[in-house]
Specification:
mainly beta, two-stranded antiparallel ribbon
Length: 181
């Protein structure tokens, strides 16, 4: 897939309102296949953000490349992804490995992962993640995700950016009854 996204963003700075305009171009290739009894998927993603001039916005004028590989075994799934991000202010790469284990006839999934963050080729940090999904009733699901992460900060160093979410998904099913005369 290929995408183009023009953006206009308004930000309030003190008593002033500033408009920033920029554009993004993205591309993604994903492939699923089998080797023996294992299922595999590979993907390559690219995102280019630019505004045509030097920008003081932390994430502007960046080039992002992500390579991902997942292997699906009967007892667990292992995924590895590598992201390379660069703009005029920094170089940043993230190496991410996750394992997910299905439990109780695949009605529950528990996963964990580690990330290694490299910033400007001199600073490294280790991040961790935990995720899970649980079937509730027959078709509903409760899931969670928590991550100890790091992002490039305005001070020129990695800044803690812990994040997470809890989500409940309710599936609605409608039956149609058709009367025949």
């Amino acid at each position: 897939s290929i995408g183009y996204i023009p953006v206009s963003q308004l930000a309030r700075l003190g008593t002033s309102v500033m408009e920033t305009r920029y554009q993004m171009i993205s591309g993604n290739i994903w492939h699923s296949y089998r080797i023996g009894s294992a299922g595999l998927s590979s993907s390559i993603s690219f995102l280019r953000s630019f505004d045509g001039r030097y920008s003081l916005l932390q994430y502007q004028n960046s080039r992002n490349l992500q390579l991902s590989q997942s292997v699906y075994f009967r007892l667990f799934t292992s995924s590895l992804s590598v992201s390379f991000i660069q703009n005029p202010l920094y170089k940043y790469d993230v190496w991410d490995h996750r394992i997910q284990v299905p439990l109780f006839n695949h009605k529950t999934i528990i996963g964990f992962g580690t990330k290694v963050y490299h910033y400007n080729l001199h600073e490294e940090k280790l991040g961790l993640s935990l995720n899970g999904a649980f079937s509730i009733f027959k078709t509903d699901q409760l899931s969670f995700f928590f991550e100890k992460a790091y992002l490039p900060g305005l001070e020129g160093a990695l800044t803690p950016a812990d994040m997470g979410h809890v989500q409940f998904t309710k599936s609605l099913h409608f039956n149609r009854s058709i009367k025949k005369n």
